[in-house]
Amino acid sequence: MTTVRGARARARIEITAAIKDEARTQLAAEGAAKLSLRAVARELGMASSALYRYFPSRDDLLTALIIDAYDALGAAAEKAAADTAGLRPLDRWTAVCRAVRAWALAHPHEYALIYGSPVPGYTAPQDTVAPAARVGLVLIETARRAHSGEGIALPPLPEALRPEAARLAADVAPDLPPALAVALVVAWSQLFGLVSFEVFGQFHRVVEDRDTFFAAAARRLGQDVGLLPRG
């Protein structure tokens, strides 16, 4: 009986992976708004009723793809942080940002699913929140290590922003100064703005040497957070 259950579990894993792979093919060809469970089932030679046992609705399949994309992007950022653990925080920060960009350029359709236009009629559930936070947590941890180690040049905090800064700090990094929490959120949004401009073509005929441009921009974001350059 255990052997039978094991075989069924393996078969379910394989079929689930095949469904998601075909769905990603459809994303690349048609976009998320046109993702269809019936079309996925047809391409896989499955009955629609059989596919519904794996994903009861299109939204369930979209959620699985979104979580996979966030997790893959987060894993790339975490690996970059681990691989550069011995470097100074600013260099580590830049390496993480470059890993985010590299993943996005290698997986533009999956990136578009999580950072492109919202899918009409779809609302992401709570299950997507933790995967979506992985890159931000890597950036926060990089700043945290700098703050407790070599120090950070805290950016100025306008008086009017102090209440919001205190709320942000309590939400995202209660152990860090509010000014740093604000700077991190700004840098996080600017990082994905840079990546999105490149992935979605806004840099076309504007920025030519994009590798050098991005490396310099990512480093500048780290300095704006207060990470100190090499002395």
Features:
2 domains, 231 residues, Tetracycline Repressor, domain 2, 11 helices, transcription, mainly alpha, Arc Repressor Mutant, subunit A, TetR/AcrR family transcriptional regulator
Describe this structure as you would to a colleague.
- This protein has 231 residues and is mainly α.
- Helices cover 70% and strands 0% of the residues.
- Keywords: DNA-binding, Transcription, Transcription regulation.
Provide a quick synopsis of the model.
With 231 residues, the protein is mostly helical.
Largest sheet: none
Radius of gyration, taken over Cα atoms and rounded to an integer in Å = 21 Å
As for the number of domains, it is: 2
Runs in which pLDDT lies below 50 for 5 or more consecutive residues are: none
Number of strands: 0
Structural class: mainly alpha
Beta-strand residue percentage: under 5%
Q: What is the distance, rounded to the nearest whole angstrom, between the alpha carbons of the first and last residues?
A: 65 Å
Helix content: 55-70%
The CATH architecture of the largest domain is: Orthogonal Bundle
Q: What is the CATH topology of the largest domain? A: Tetracycline Repressor, domain 2
The total of helices stands at 11
Q: Which CATH C-level class of the largest domain is it?
A: Mainly Alpha
Shape: elongated
What is the mean predicted local confidence, pLDDT? 93
Summarize the helix and strand pattern as letters. HHHHHHHHHHH
| CATH homology superfamily of the largest domain | Tetracycline Repressor, domain 2
